[in-house]
Description:
It is a single chain. By secondary structure, the protein is of the alpha/beta class. Among the domains are: 3-58, no CATH class; 319-361, no CATH class. It is 24% helix and 22% strand. It contains 9 helices and 20 strands. The protein has helices spanning 3-10, 102-105, 125-134, 151-163, 178-184, 200-206, 210-223, 241-254, 279-291, and strands spanning 12-14, 18-20, 26-28, 36-37, 49-51, 54-58, 61-62, 64-69, 83-88, 121-122, 139-142, 167-172, 190-194, 226-233, 260-264, 297-300, 312-313, 320-325, 328-332, 367-368. Strands 16-15-14-13-12-11-9-8-20 form a 9-stranded mixed beta sheet. A hairpin with a 6-residue loop joins strand 17 (312-313) and strand 18 (320-325). Helix 3 (125-134) packs across helix 4 (151-163) and helix 8 packs across helix 9. The two termini are 30 Å apart. Bound molecules: iron/sulfur cluster.
Amino acid sequence: MNSGKTILDALTRPAELALPEADDAVRCLACAHRCLVRPGKRGICQVRFNEGGQLYAPWGYVAALQADPVEKKPFFHLFPGATALTFGMLGCDFHCGYCQNWLTSQALRDPASNSSIQLIREVDASELVTLARRSGAEVLVSSYNEPLITSEWAVSIFKQARLAGLKCAFVSNGNTTPEALDYLHPWLDAYKVDLKSMREANYRQLGGVLKHVLETIERVHGMGLWLEVVTLVVPGFNDSNEELWEAARFLRSISTDIPWHVTAFHPDYKMTNRDHTAASSLVRAAEIGREAGLNFVYAGNLPGRVEEYENTFCPHCNTRLVRREQFSLREYYITASGKCPKCGGLVPGRWSEQPEKIVLNGTHLPKKVY
Ligand code: SF4
């Protein structure tokens, strides 16, 4: 047996997002693939498996742990300036050719990522919460690989994090099920969804289904969780004006207040045969978002090269409320009650109740946590 599998299989618990089926098979409910996992078999993600009629889910470890600026997730309307202790595990339910975290996300799926097993560090939930407090984090985030496939572990951590006063968030591909979202909802404050394309054929190439992601965006917004959406703009893949307009119109049809981040691609993993996203393309994508009627459109990964698209403006009077440079805040004017100080209009988001304590002009760089 593969030693990576042996190590990972030991770090599991019986899954809660599971339904028994005939002949000891189990239907996994953690993501929209809804794998029917038969005894001795694994789901598409490879990290959830059926042993003797019981589905097992990853538990009790992290493969990456970093104190990041919350802006790096990216969340721009979730306590700007906060530190987000971010943990990742191994595995994914997609296989995106341009994944920037492929070493961990493609564990057990691509032999090239076998070495990721060495990144495993066993921890318990309370230890992670202690590390979050020690690193000054206000937010705890499950990210780097797809958090849905390890939802049970995330919930066990978030339960303790909430008691410690931390906010909790998912950074996800949005391949959810209603069951998984209901399970996560009580313990989550915010959810970032990647909207990778508006084309079914593109989603098939990545291992997903467009409809499931669109439904997630609607559902997360409907549940009242703070939602931000990211589209990595990949030249020749999803960057036509037509497709960007479709994405922007779709978001606007749900709410003009959903922040939409259009971010720059760089060649990675298996997609090395195309150019970096040009700053002009990113600005074009952001302009489409604004023209479509979205109030908050941000251009990411090209700091200082995207005009005003790193900043937040009042949706009522257009006053600049937050000025950013990459992950660092340069100016911040949103009031403790989440309003524009000039016109008094409410700014959608989750804002600090002590804006005077927000650190401006800090380096705010990611830090590994050991
Ligand atoms: S998390 Fe998704 S891919 Fe993994 S077993 Fe469950 S349904 Fe299948």
